[in-house]
């Protein structure tokens, strides 16, 4: 076995040495210990290194430009000598006496957060609301507001869900889509529009604080007008849907799970 | 009643578990009490051993010698028209219906529900009409319970045609 391996090794040697006669990839002899025999003789190494190419040739030594090791630096102050020589490459033992002034990361505020929208939700998607006063209703998604909340509408005439904001977390996007490309929303429909109005506290002098009745929420005329304007357009686009009649009934019906229905197994 | 479906060479079975779940295979050889060699050349199931509890036996059987090569199995499979016969079976239809149902979207489910309730209303109405007619003419509860004066047996209204729409697809 040993013999065989040796012979194999030898043949492979020959083979390779023929092919890469002067190749530098071929291993040089690496003899670290003086006790071990060298793999190649001097003559052999002469050929392997192709020293014959260099015999009798003189190559001008390339001179590298010497890099300065120190730099002269001006020092302010009267009694400081005016200048210092500072090492370009600091010694390994040197460490800073002061913390470096670091650049602070830009402040992350809600305003600057990146808004994302689930790909299943696009303008015109029928959504199933899962939270809030209108949970279980199927509504039409109109657009995403700057705050990242979704602007939806029932339409109000169909399922009594008004123009409203809701987080996409509390919504199931269905595959049913209505083409709302023709719907033009009033510019005023933004986050500020939907912000809760703060009640002003009554002054102490004015009557009894306990008697003070809270003002009930009243829908403003502005909202009613906007609702009307938007719903009219949305209904029009619903009418263009091939299944318009069923779709209207669908939007007015509440969502619910029947027996042996599991939301994670259902297609929406 | 004697058993009709045996674990035997040529028996067509449905894989009930594993990566090939739901595919048809044919038993090529019986390895031992719990395992068989199966092959599904037409259903892209490579020849392999399967445990018997991963198989559901069907009523179909094709003929080839045990341990036959895939080529032979394929030939017998085609000649036996396994695929065609399988698709006609109630079992396969149920599987298909189940799959279809699982793919329904929310809107589809709504439409289905609507159609079903409409069909059921029509059916109930026609049933009640029939019952009324037959109880009045004494057919249902006997002559003693007949309405006074004895209505003449009205020709029962023919049940309206069910909304043939989509919902024939399943109920």
Describe the structure.
The complex is a heterodimer of chains A (268) and B (171). Chain A is an alpha+beta fold. Chain A contains six helices and seven strands; from the N terminus they run ααβββββαββααα. A five-stranded antiparallel beta sheet of chain A has the order 6-5-4-3-7. With 171 residues, chain B is an alpha+beta fold. Chain B is built from four helices and five strands. Chain B has helices at 70-79, 82-88, 90-102, 106-136, and strands at residues 11-15, 24-30, 35-40, 45-51, 55-61. Chain B has a five-stranded antiparallel beta sheet, covered by helices on one side. The longest helix of chain B has 31 residues, at 106-136. Chain B is elongated and about 80 Å long. The two termini of chain B are 32 Å apart. The mean pLDDT of chain B is 88. Chains A and B meet through β7 and α6 of A and α4 of B. Chain B: One of its GO terms (cellular component) is cytosolic large ribosomal subunit. Chain B: One of its GO terms (biological process) is translation. Chain B: It comes from Rhynchophorus ferrugineus.
């Amino acid at each position: 076995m040993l013999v065989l391996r040796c012979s194999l090794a030898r043949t492979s040697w020959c083979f390779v040495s023929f092919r890469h006669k002067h190749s530098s990839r071929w291993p040089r002899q690496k003899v670290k210990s003086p006790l071990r025999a060298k793999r190649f003789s001097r003559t052999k190494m002469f050929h392997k290194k192709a020293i014959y190419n260099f015999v009798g040739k003189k190559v001008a030594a390339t001179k590298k430009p010497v890099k300065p090791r120190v730099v002269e630096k001006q020092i302010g102050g009267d009694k400081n000598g005016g200048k210092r020589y500072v090492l370009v490459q600091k010694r390994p033992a040197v460490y800073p006496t002061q913390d470096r002034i670091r650049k602070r990361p830009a402040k992350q505020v809600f305003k600057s957060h990146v808004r994302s929208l689930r790909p299943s939700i696009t303008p015109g998607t029928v959504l199933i609301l899962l939270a809030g006063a209108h949970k279980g209703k199927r509504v039409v998604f109109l657009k995403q507001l700057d705050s990242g909340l979704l602007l939806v509408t029932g339409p109000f005439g169909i399922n009594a869900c008004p123009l409203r904001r809701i987080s996409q977390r509390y919504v199931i996007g269905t595959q049913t889509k209505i083409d709302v490309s023709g719907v033009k929303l009033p510019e005023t429909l933004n986050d500020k529009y939907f912000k809760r109005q703060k009640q002003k506290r009554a002054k102490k002098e004015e009557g009894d604080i306990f008697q003070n009745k809270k003002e009930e929420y009243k829908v403003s005329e502005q909202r009613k007008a906007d609702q009307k304007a938007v719903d009219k357009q949305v209904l029009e686009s619903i009418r263009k849907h091939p299944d318009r009649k069923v779709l209207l009934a669908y939007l007015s019906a509440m969502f619910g799970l029947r027996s042996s229905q599991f939301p994670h197994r259902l297609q929406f | 009643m004697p058993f009709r479906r045996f674990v035997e060479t040529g028996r067509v079975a449905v894989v009930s578990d594993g990566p090939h779940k739901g595919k048809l295979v044919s038993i090529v050889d019986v390895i031992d009490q719990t395992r068989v060699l199966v092959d599904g050349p037409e259903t892209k199931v490579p020849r392999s051993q399967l445990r018997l509890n991963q198989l559901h036996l069907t009523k179909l059987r094709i003929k080839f010698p045990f341990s036959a090569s895939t080529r032979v199995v394929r030939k017998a499979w085609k000649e036996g028209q396994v695929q065609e016969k399988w698709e006609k079976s109630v079992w396969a239809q149920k599987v298909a219906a189940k799959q279809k149902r699982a793919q329904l979207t929310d809107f589809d489910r709504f439409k289905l529900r609507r159609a079903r309730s409409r069909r059921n209303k029509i059916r109930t109405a026609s049933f009640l009409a029939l019952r009324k007619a037959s109880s009045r003419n004494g057919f249902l509860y006997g002559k003693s319970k007949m309405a006074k004066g004895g209505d003449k047996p009205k020709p029962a209204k023919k049940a309206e045609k069910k909304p043939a729409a989509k919902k024939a697809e399943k109920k």
